[in-house]
Amino acid sequence: MLVVARANGPITAEEIIGAFGDxxxxxxxxxxxxxxxxxxxxxxxxxxxxxxxxxxxxSSFEQWGKSYPGRNVRSAFVVPDKDQLxxxxxxxxxxxxxxxxxxxxxxxxxxLDALAWLRPGNELRH
Length: 126
What we know:
By secondary structure, the protein is of the alpha/beta class. The protein has helices spanning 13-26, 51-67, 82-97, 111-118, and strands spanning 2-7, 35-40, 73-78, 103-108.
């Protein structure tokens, strides 16, 4: 299963936590153990998102991981706008430093490249 999320407009930690939490509940935890692609629209706005907000998202993933242990997935972020890149790069660093997030994270400029990386059997994991 691949979880696909499309993001536009203002993006808050509460929206991310709520949407992903709803998907985890809807799938009885399967969404947490599925690769993820997040596709940001040009108008996606991270201005309400700061480091503390991203840490709240991180904490939520760690809590979900306690309920559904063993998460080891790939998360691909398609970022068309260089202004969005800073926030997504910070999330990538957080995911790298905190293994409880349970995701190898990569950033792409094009959706096709992200999907190619997520393709089952792709050996680009490290």
